[in-house]
Structures are given as structure tokens and as C-alpha cells.
Specification:
The chain has 467 residues and is mainly α. It contains 18 helices and two strands. The protein has helices at residues 13-42, 46-69, 89-97, 105-127, 136-158, 171-190, 193-197, 199-211, 220-224, 243-270, 277-293, 306-315, 320-335, 337-345, 348-370, 378-396, 406-412, 415-431; strands spanning 82-84, 302-304. This is Nucleobase:cation symporter-2 family protein.
């Protein structure tokens, strides 16, 4: 009988449990941050925010099981953790801002994600053949823009819970944010292993404890949360389908599929089971189907988490069943709102301090990819320069597109969407159109990243956390 590949091994129960929890710890804050951002933009109450957070955990667990265990031709059957992608946060906030009645914002977002997920599912086998059009110069630019676009969120959190309030931006709030930031940095600098992996989570906990004497910690959500609950399907209303929002989420889906493809290529090398075209297509089907089903339980667009790929490389534990156990934990956490409510207790300034590390590491991860993108070539420098400039417009000049139709603003207000489209088009123009198949300027998606186990992929490398 042939020996099982390490990916398919089932470890002893205790090791399965502890290793599964470690995967959850490595990505927990990354799953809860997007619903916190979007929920705050919508203006949800602490109790509703808790519900949305729990729903994201539940949906992430389902997507992780789908990816690791697999059904039919769905699922890469590799040790992947799936969760809410950071790529969708800025476009979703843009949708919220452009929706007159905020009660309609989440149904519009959910409707757009369902359509994008289903279209992505159909496109998965074809997309796996088009990887050459998304080299590091494109993906690195997009991931850098994700981090940069989210930094204003962290700065806003650091200034206090209520924008425009008399004490907004006071020394008290900024001081708490700074303390949280320093705690995370100290843990990252002076610890190792599991403790180092959960530095952001520990920073949130310790920062919250320190904030209690200052009177900025709100425990109301904890008191109102149910001990046991279920993410009621379409809790915020039946999905609505708006064309501009759908287009915006389809762009995000393309970015997400690009990120997941690179992660599968990297993880395949790490676990010594190279991801071929068939594996990539199956993995993308799991990502996209998980995304399409996620809104049913009030979750958002799902994608693989790169920091968990790094965890596999570091621990050398390659079993996909370990990650499946982590997915089970995520589902249980989603079914116990009182656990999810703990996140709502964390004061905004504390989140802001940790968010600087969280979102900054996303941008740094993109820069890491750009370092492998062949920037010694003038064409690639132009692609990065123009794409980042276009992507920064909504941040640097918020009123730049004020004369455009309101529906177009959903896309134009997202620097990630506009930057991604610009990077893809420029890459085609400069590196593909009119070039021979062996043209030296055309870079392969994994070119320059031979030491994959030592260089974590371009995606969200946020320690809680992104994507």
C-alpha cells in the first residue's frame, strides 16, 4: 500500500486541535476586520456588528472546509485557510457611501458578491489558463494599493469612536493607539513561535485592558450578545442587484482569484505537491463558490489567507486536515455570538494602533512582490507608477471624480479597483501586445520567487489578519 502524502495525513487528535487553533489565531483578526470596517460604515449597532462578525467567521469556516476537504472538482485539497478578502473592503465601503439609504447597503453588497461568485465559479477553469497575464508587476501593485487604501481607516480609528466629536483626535485616543502599536511591535520583536504569530491579537487584548481606566471600553455588546446563535440567512434583507456594485465586486473577484492562484502555486511547492492547472481550477472553484454562498449567511467575498501559507512553511505541518479542524473552529465561533462580541469590546483607538501594523503589512507584502517584478525594466516601472498614481486618486483627491455619474463612483471611489484595471491594461499594452512569446519583458506570475518557502506570497501578510 503506497504511503500517504503528508498533505493527506491525519495527525494525532491533540496535535490536530492545537495546530488548527494556531491557524485560526494567525488569521482571526483578518476575518473580523472587514466586517468591522463595513459594519461601521453602514452604522450598525454594537449588537448587529457582533452578528456580522460572527457571520463572517461562520462563512470563513465553511469556505475553509470546502477548500481543504473538497467536493467533486471543487477544492484544491491543500492546507488553505479561507476568509474575507481585504481586496473587497474599500469597494464595499464605496458602495455604502454611494447608497442613499444605508439599510440597502448590505443587501446591495451581498447581491453583488453572489453574482461575482457565480461568474467566478464559471470562469475558474478558464482563469487558470490566464495566469500569465497577472505577473508580479500587476499583483504586487494591487496588493500595495490594498494596504495603502486601508491605512486611512486605521488613522480614523486611532482618533476615536465618533468622528467630529469634541474629543476626536485627542491625546487620550492617540495615546491608546500608540500604546497598542508599541505592544504589537514588542511582541513581534521579543517573542517567537505561536506568541509571535498572534501578536496583533495580543495587542488588541492588552490594549483593551489598558483602555478600561480611561473609560473608552464599551462592554454593552458583550452583555447583549446571545450565548448561542445562528447566522440567520439574509438577516439584513434579501439581496439587491445593482449593476455598478456588481461590476465593482467582479473586479475584486478577479483580484482575489489572482491572489489565490499565486498562493496555490506557492503552497504547492511548500508541501511538495505542485499545483497544476487542474488543482488551481479546483481551488478557484472553492474560492468562488464559497464567496457566492457566503452572503446567504451574511458573509463577504472569501479568498485564501497568505499568512497561513507562511505558517505551513514555518511549522512544516502539511496536513490539510489540520486546516480543516481550524475551519471547524471558525464555524463554532460563528455559532457562539458571545465569542464574536469580544471583538466589539475593543475600543476604536486600540484597533487603530493594531490596524497600522495590520494594513501596513499588506502594503509591505505588495512591495515584497514588486521587488520580484523585474522593476529594472522601464516598462514595468511605468506600469507600477501609473497604476499606483491612479489608485491613490480617491485617497489623495476625494473629490477628483465629482463630475462623474453617481453609479460610476462605486468603482472610481475604489483605488483598488481602478488601480487593478489600470495595471492589467498597461501590462497587456507594454508586455504582451506586439511581443513575441519569448519577449524578455514578459514576466511569469512566479518569476523571481524561486525560494517560495522563504518568501511568503504577495497577499495579505497581516498577522491577524488581510486578505
Amino acid at each position: 500500500m503506497p504511503e500517504k502524502h503528508p498533505v493527506d495525513e491525519k495527525l494525532p487528535p491533540l496535535k490536530m486541535m492545537t495546530s488548527g487553533l494556531q491557524h485560526v489565531a494567525a488569521m482571526y483578526a483578518g476575518v473580523v476586520a472587514p466586517p468591522l470596517i463595513v459594519g461601521a460604515a453602514v452604522g450598525l449597532s454594537p449588537k448587529e456588528l457582533t452578528f456580522l462578525t460572527g457571520a463572517s467567521l461562520f462563512a470563513a469556516g465553511l469556505a475553509t472546509l470546502l477548500q481543504t476537504l473538497g467536493v467533486w472538482k471543487i477544492g484544491a485539497k491543500l492546507p488553505f485557510v479561507n476568509g474575507v478578502t481585504f481586496a473587497g473592503v474599500a469597494p464595499m465601503v464605496a458602495i455604502v457611501n454611494q447608497t442613499p439609504d444605508k439599510k440597502d447597503a448590505l443587501p446591495i453588497i451581498f447581491g453583488a458578491i453572489i453574482v461575482a461568485g457565480l461568474l467566478g465559479f464559471v470562469a475558474a477553469p478558464y482563469f487558470s489558463k490566464l495566469v500569465r497575464f497577472f505577473p508580479p508587476v500587476v499583483t504586487g501593485t494591487v496588493i500595495t494599493l490594498i494596504g495603502i487604501s486601508l491605512m486611512p481607516v486605521a488613522f480614523g480609528w486611532a482618533q476615536g469612536p465618533v468622528p467630529g466629536a469634541k474629543d476626536y483626535g485627542s491625546f487620550k485616543y492617540l495615546g491608546l493607539a500608540a500604546i497598542s502599536l508599541v505592544i504589537v511591535l514588542l511582541i513581534r520583536r521579543f517573542t517567537s513561535g505561536f506568541v509571535k504569530q498572534i501578536a496583533v491579537l495580543l495587542g488588541l487584548v492588552l490594549g483593551t485592558v489598558i483602555a478600561i481606566p480611561f473609560g473608552v471600553t464599551d462592554f454593552s455588546a458583550l452583555g447583549e450578545a446571545d450565548i448561542v446563535g445562528f447566522p440567520t440567512p439574509f438577516h439584513f434583507g434579501a439581496p439587491q442587484f445593482a449593476l455598478a456594485a456588481i461590476v465593482s465586486m467582479c473586479v475584486v473577484m478577479i483580484v482575489s482569484m489572482t491572489e489565490s492562484t499565486a498562493d496555490m502555486l506557492a503552497l504547492g511547492e511548500i508541501v511538495e505537491r505542485p499545483a497544476d492547472e487542474k488543482t488551481i481550477a479546483a481551488g478557484l472553484r472553492a474560492d468562488t463558490l464559497g464567496s457566492a454562498l457566503s452572503p446567504l449567511f451574511n458573509g463577504f467575498l472569501a479568498s485564501a489567507f497568505a499568512q497561513n501559507v507562511g505558517l505551513v512553511a514555518m511549522t512544516k505541518i502539511r496536513s490539510r486536515f489540520v486546516v480543516a479542524v481550524g475551519g471547524g473552529f471558525l464555524i463554532l465561533m460563528g455559532l457562539f455570538p458571545v465569542v464574536a462580541s469580544l471583538i466589539a469590546v475593543v475600543p476604536r483607538p486600540v484597533l487603530g494602533g493594531a490596524g497600522i501594523v495590520l494594513f501596513g503589512s499588506v502594503a509591505a507584502s505588495g512591495i515584497q512582490t514588486l521587488a520580484k517584478a523585474g522593476l529594472d525594466k522601464d516598462n514595468n516601472v511605468l506600469i507600477v507608477a501609473v497604476s499606483i498614481a491612479v489608485g491613490l486618486i480617491p485617497i489623495a483627491a476625494p473629490t477628483f471624480y465629482h463630475a462623474f455619474p453617481e453609479t460610476a463612483m462605486i468603482i472610481l471611489d475604489s483605488g483598488i479597483s481602478t488601480g487593478c484595471v489600470t495595471a492589467v491594461i498597461l501590462n497587456l499594452v507594454f508586455n504582451h501586445v506586439g511581443k513575441s512569446k519569448n519577449a524578455s519583458d514578459v514576466t511569469h506570475p512566479m518569476e523571481g520567487g524561486e525560494d517560495i518557502a522563504g518568501a511568503i506570497p504577495h497577499k495579505r501578510s497581516e498577522e491577524a489578519p488581510a486578505h
